[in-house]
Fold this protein.
Amino acid sequence: MEAVRRVISVVVLNEAQVLARVSGLFAARGYNIESLTVAPMPDTDMSHITIVTKGNKRVIEQITKQLHKLIPTFKVIEHEEMVEKEMVLIKFPIEQSLSDIQVLCEAYNGGIVNVGENMVIGMVTDEPVRVKHFIEAAKRYSPMEIVRGGVVAIER
Amino acid sequence: MKMSGAQMICEAIIAEDVKTIFGYPGGAIMNVYDEIYKQKKFEHILTRHEQAAVHAADGYARASGKVGVAMVTSGPGFTNAVTGIATAYTDSIPLVVISGQVPLSLIGTDGFQEIDAVGISRSCTKHNYLVRSLEELPRVLKEAFYIARSGRPGPVLVDVPKDITGEIGEFVYPSEVNLPSYKPNYKGNNRQIQKAAKAILEAKKPLLYIGGGAVLSGAAQIVRELAEMTQIPAVETLMSRGVMGAKNPLLLGMLGMHGNYASNMAMSETDLVISLGARFDDRVTGKLSEFAKYADVIHVDIDPANIAKLVDVDYPIVGDIKTVIEKLIPLLKNEVKTERYQVWRDILNRYNELHPLLYNDSDEVIKPQWAIERLGELVGEQAIITSDVGQHQMWAAQFYPFDRPNQWINSGGLGTMGFGFPAALGAKKAVPEKTVINITGDGSILMNVQELVTAAEHKIPVINVILNNHFLGMVRQWQTFFYDKRYSETDLSYQPNWKMLAEACGGIGYDVTTKEEFDAAIKDAIVQDKVAFVNVAIARLENVLPMVPSGGALYNMLLEHKEEK
């Protein structure tokens, strides 16, 4: 069976250990985590976890079932029709062309968010594959640091 | 009512109607032991090792069908308990394990006897809690018992910091739980059940594949009814021995690595597997691609994650075995044509006649299979049988005539040596009117042999039948078959004096080398009110057969092994 990329959202009770339960499940059963983001959901006592994983059909089915089996799990969504976004921050040396960096970031729905004595920070929020392209393009400007935020998704 | 956290723990145990708990005190749990001392509503059995305390609670749960409770202290107390917890987890046994923890203010400081109990036990508990305030303790205790026994049962750990057990607060034991994220499905989907019924009616070679879930669900009676009504043959897994009853003509036997020929061939040739609470363990399936190759699969299980985990399932039914069969029976009642499966039954009967489960008995030396059959004749239905792990376990599963569920208690999933003796103590406490016999080996019994003292002190007269071949027999068997007889670290020729060992601890010992001595020892041990060791010298190189070599297809069984002289 062919391995496919899947984005899975998990709604969990926002309590101690819950992230360890989720990530521990992946570690213990040998599942992949490509990215994992977590944040509390507004006006609830719950958290939303977005996981990007890879596996064949049987593995993906097991992942969703095992996630669901965790006692604090309310809901597991295996995304099909979704809007998917990722954020990335890149720090460039101040010697690089600011206007080039500005244009590049804008091409990927972002811009320059901070300029200091020695560096400039660009930010981009876009689909994961476009974020990847952006990072490749940014490499010619000698980036000092790249921090990706991990994928978040919402079903349409 | 105002009380301490320690008292709350005792009150919860009382409210849950637990009569006996097993444990071992220590610094972080002392507040609770102080309250145990003051109360009279439940009994505490002091085992001599925390692992044994958890196995004893496990045996109590398996024999009674209720939640077992074990209590340990922090740090090494807890880590010693982990094997017991993992054993219960793998076999889905409802336990609540209460562990002490260092005070809240010390957590995370590498305090004395501090260990991350919830971290360590996360992957071998159904759920676990580190209690963070006295206010949440009553709710956590209530949830722990509920989670342990509901849905697919399993062990729940409640780790309680010492300051919380000492603190005073208001106690009301909740009458119900409020867990919106945990709702086990017992009912089974009606449409799927209808489809499954249709598949049964249309099948030519259906097979009931009965797993430990049938025991846990209390479904033995209705499983028998289903088999009787449809006249569909059945195979049992290691965990479900006793569900069909040994005398049941529809029972082919146990399947799997050491299953009998007819059972394994039935699984290889069936056109419809009706899986009732089984989980397609690798020791059952052998080579997966050859397993039930020609069959559609109905899979009834309370745990959706078990369904389609290893084999593709055509009729998935998430639900409690008993409830689902109750719905299935009326759909089949006037429809099923039992003669439809007659050819299939004839084939399987011929397989059984071709290669029945046999062994070569001897007059010179006791064969382990004989000892187990004889035990069956002597105590039969009257006994609860526990076992350790290895050859003796397989022989017991093959040759003991189990008549009812909860009669056979063994560590099937995790395969924990040292399980049988403490589990027997727990079983005897739960069902004192039954004779409890641990069938064990000379390897396994030494893991937890210290429980002789527990048994003698508390007058728990369980009988340990040690099938003694002076080997770690199962590993030795694999070395014979697959490692050119290089018996690396499996020769147990150096042995204690078993009779003296038992007697040194306040029990009674028997050395048995002949069939007459075996009968005499068992009969005498039954009427003693002492824990007993019956040391039975058995044929040293006897193998467990048939055997499906690891990773092989079920139908490729080694039926005999010719030993060159």
Notes: Residues 190-354 of chain B form a domain with the Rossmann fold fold (CATH 3.40.50.1220). Chain B touches chain A at residues 118-119, 122-123, 126-128, 130, 132, 147, 179-182, 303-305, 308-309 (CB under 8 Å). The CA atoms of residues 55 and 423 of chain B lie 5 Å apart.
